[in-house]
Specification:
Length: about 260
């Protein structure tokens, strides 16, 4: 009898075990620092999942859905295992076929609709065949702000008439990386943001300016004194004092 069992065990160990790829889901979400999730309304976030060893792409796509519930995300203290998302919150579900535990690299870039402000983030995780990652899934947080100079526009040629009473009013639009609004007294309070600018001519800074929040949501404005004729470069940057987010934009314009 012992000989029989020995033969059976030997046969089991000698027979090769064939591994089969098993589709495994990975829920991936991208969240703006001190704000909400990056979804369809701001173009979504590009997601690429790669095998860490080979570098081959296992899955890629774009997050889609809403930015999430403001009260849950921004105004409710989180407890362990408490969901931050619901069925409508932006996500990308990667389906990867792995035969064995596999270390993967996840790379995201967002927001896609504002490439000038897009930030890249990465993380790594082990994927176990058949062990889906659901719910909130993997959340990658990105710092940053979306700042767009609205006026003057790129390569605009300003005439003397553009400077009323000797000044030109320039304006920028500022939002969180998820597109969330900035307003005085709002969830993202304009009083917590500094927005400043500097003007260059021939590569040298010739002026520094502070922008003030207007009554319009997201809109800031400042005043440029009438410069001499020539080509100029205007850089505007914003900094969130409590959330430690930052953003910038730069354009060129001319004065006739």
């Amino acid at each position: 009898m012992r000989l029989f069992y020995s033969i059976i065990l030997s046969t089991l160990f000698l027979c090769p075990v064939e591994l089969h790829a098993m589709p495994t889901k990975i829920t991936i979400r991208v969240k703006a620092k001190d704000a909400k999730f990056i979804g369809t309304a701001i173009g979504g976030a590009a997601v690429i999942v790669r095998d860490n060893l080979s570098g081959s792409i296992l899955s890629q796509g774009v997050t889609a859905g809403g930015s999430g519930d403001t009260k849950i995300i921004m105004q409710t203290p989180l407890t362990r295992y408490q969901p931050q998302t619901d069925s409508t919150t932006a996500k990308y579900v990667a389906v990867v076929d792995v035969e064995e535990p596999t270390l993967v690299d996840v790379e995201v870039q967002a927001p896609l609709s504002r490439r000038g402000a897009a930030i890249k983030g990465t993380t790594q995780l082990w994927v176990i065949p058949g062990k889906d990652i659901l719910g909130d899934g993997i959340i990658i947080e990105l710092p940053g702000l979306i700042l767009d100079i609205l006026n003057p526009y790129t390569h605009q040629s300003l005439s003397e008439e553009s400077f009323k009473n000797g000044v030109f009013v320039f304006r920028v639009n500022l939002v969180m990386l998820c597109g969330c609004p900035i307003a005085t007294g709002g969830v993202w309070d304009a009083n917590n943001f500094e927005v400043k600018a500097y003007l260059k001519k021939d590569g040298k800074v010739i002026g520094n300016y502070e922008l003030n929040k207007t009554d319009v949501v997201n809109l800031y404005e400042g005043k440029l004194p009438s410069p001499v004729k020539g080509s100029y470069e205007l850089t505007v940057h914003a900094f969130q004092n409590k959330g430690y987010n930052a953003g910038a934009d730069r354009i060129n314009f001319t004065v006739q």
